[in-house]
Each structure stands twice: as C-alpha cells, then as structure tokens.
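Minutes, project check-in
Item: structure for the 63-residue chain
Input as provided by the requester:
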Amino acid sequence: MLSDRLQQLQAAGLTRKHGPRGAYELTTEGALLAEALQPLWDWSEQWTTAGDGNGRIPWRPAR
C-alpha cells in the first residue's frame, strides 16, 4: 500500500528516489505543495493533539 502511494507520488512528480538505498524525497514541486498546504495544516492543529509540536508539517523541508 505504501509502495503504491509512493509510486503515485513519484509519477505525479512530487517525490523521487534518491541515493543508493532508494530513499524517497520531495521534489521542488512536492516542497511547493507542502508550502501551499501549510495553512491547512496549521488550522488542523487547532483540532488535534497530533503533530510535531512546533506547528510544522513533519515532512516539510527545513529552511
């Protein structure tokens, strides 16, 4: 199931395989999508106790 989703994200140009172990990482487009979704993530954190504790999407690249 996870493998299928990662392949779909790769086909959409949001992730790519990187390195000798084939780890997935966000492409520029994937990072831009994460940036665009940040306000929705912030809003959702008001309604849940989940999250990384600093109000950021856990997979979002650090700046």
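Outcome recorded: The mean pLDDT is 82.
No further action items on this chain.
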